[in-house]
């Protein structure tokens, strides 16, 4: 596989600014993502981490504009792909972006495939839509893709149906589908969560390898810091719909600054430690219907001070990282 | 495929046997002496004894049961007490009318019900959805004879578009179809209501499925999403439920036949009941049971054809 | 479903679900109001009915609706409105009695089948499956034809046809509940199976059975009307809707209203129950509620 030359344009491939995504409950709308800023650079793997309910998946769905209709809306912000705002595109133009310039891998391989369509047809579909390939050409291309994601005996198996595949194999198919048109950006939403541990590592290294060969940028969403350590270049930690800390992967693991990041790291099992030392984070993510007025993490935070509970801390630069914390930012200023 | 068919048919046999047993037992719990019931109070003891002997009523229940099953196996469903002709002959004479009616109702139901159900699901919570939901609930609330009478009043009596008697001789194709329109629409509209509801809910379930989002993430257009991805999946439960509904359809066809004075199994049942012809009633029930089982087995086979997850 | 079944504290119908059914769905209201009107007319028939429903008057046969007879008179000169109101009593009585019988019997059999398992389960559900295989109307028709047409036999026949669905609905969650901690604890403490089934399992099923009952009540009333129409209902001269339609049908060319009014009465009652049951089911079905 030849190296794809880097895209000629400059700047980040994907830039999210001030994104606010709201969900409806009864007559009211509540924000699940609250003023999110996030950039994805070329050839970069960005990991977005956080507990469930932190708005990670909502962010990914917002990028592709796949939020449930009627139940969710993007209320503010913009999402630029190569400088072009996706939120202003017509639905038809958006269809040209989906699957062509941005591919997506979903969390649940067991339900992500159409049970009544053959595997090969599902992989071919994007090629036929975006590349306008005829049946035979699309089939050849699909076969090459399935071989590339290391589906054993792909030539035969592409005529089978999803229920004849294991979870790991299905996820490979989903990846092949997402990559079919060589997208610039791959969004992977918890791509390994539903898989067995041994399969997880295989799928992750496959993603990493493909990202390199294709010269893609990848945004991987996960709650598993082990995944992050394996493949990410940069990490954004999300909490209650906001980024609370963003840093290169090494710095983040070496010295987490935000108390939430610290807690996440303590709650992650490590090979070199007993499971007994795991410290679950007490309390839970606030409901989007009952956001605390100040720092969203304050109710669970051991470092909390009076201002934390009344005012939202800003996301401030701190060396090679961004940090949203009254206490830690002030420590730095005081020092 | 053939093995699948054989297996399905074998699986249906115990159900058929059980249904036959229920019919047999029901026909034996007639209070009092069936012979007396049939012949009336003035019957002579000799006549009663002769009839009892003919019906095998003085033999033990188990022997009667074996006779009954043996008869069914040989295609002998007994002899009508009133006409003296075999039940098979009686049924065969009217069965084409009932089949005409049931199949055309099924056709009407699928023809209108599926598109309406799809429309309602795709335009969920918009006016097409509300309209089809209310209309289909109204349709389901109609007892078949009530809707039949209303149609008869409107189209046959007031407007005189169709004959009041919903049948014509079997050798008059045009008249047969003309006469069939009202009864078939009557039965078909109830079926439409049902198919609409089932299609809508099945379609809604599929539209919210994970794989639909995967397809959208590939850039599949809305139209292709509905037709290529949603519909084949939504059809699977629709087929099953429609198959299960055939029993109710047969029941409703009885009422429709009565309202439109059509010959058919419904009329035959009515005659059997009013003449207290229990062997005829029993025979008709056996035939209904067989129809239901054939319908269920066919449903399973179709299901196997459209759902790749079903192995032959 | 599993979440709902985890704790015994979630037992019984959630009051919020009932409120939800009425809050979120105007059609539920329409159903409730229509049904209330029918029930009221039935209960108060002796007070409200303008005439004696059985009073014949040869001089006013087949009269069109007028001030004296709001919905006209039938072939015997009886007041159609009064007969409709009294007919409602039979329809509702047969409907409620048969569904209560069906839910009690079917529910009990389903719980026993699910809880006991093994041969008992197979036997009970086998019989239920056979009952389910018969078209409802035909099974009811056969039972009444054999037993003879009477109020009691109608109730028995309809109960028989509607028992099986309740058994199915009661059995499935029982299978799950049987494995739950609080049921096993009861078993370990040596409680009598009947007590466990009645105290620990039944309350968890009440909500679902109740919703189903309201939908099957609609079917029961429709079946009663159908059987009466065929001539297998409560014997004349008692007023029943199905019977009135049958008599009206015989005079359909001279006096179409005779068939029309009782037809509408059946339709409205069945529709009301369907609207109500539908709203309740939407509110109680956790899968639908999440959407």
Summarize the structure in words.
- Chain A is of the alpha/beta class and 335 residues long.
- Chain A has helices at 56-64, 91-97, 109-112, 119-131, 135-148, 154-157, 167-179, 197-214, 225-231, 249-254, 259-266, 326-334, and strands at residues 14-25, 28-40, 45-49, 72-81, 84-85, 102-105, 185-189, 217-222, 234-239, 242-248, 316-318, 321-323.
- In chain A, strand 11 and strand 12 form a beta hairpin.
- Chain B has 312 residues and is mainly α.
- Chain B has 12 helices and no strands.
- Chain B has helices at 2-28, 34-39, 45-55, 61-73, 87-122, 127-141, 144-158, 173-207, 210-217, 222-259, 265-274, 278-306.
- In chain B, helix 1 packs antiparallel against helix 12, helix 5 (87-122) crosses helix 8 and helix 7 (144-158) packs across helix 8 (173-207).
- In chain C, 75% of the residues lie in helices and 0% in strands.
- Chain C has 13 helices and no strands.
- Chain C has a domain at 88-290: MetI-like fold.
- Chains in contact: A-B, B-C.
- Chain A binds chain B through residues 64, 66, 70, 91-92, 95-100, 103-104, 106, 108, 111-117, 125-126, 129-130, 161, 163, 174, 177-178, 180, and chain B through 125, 209-211, 213-222, 228-229, 232-233, 236, 306-309.
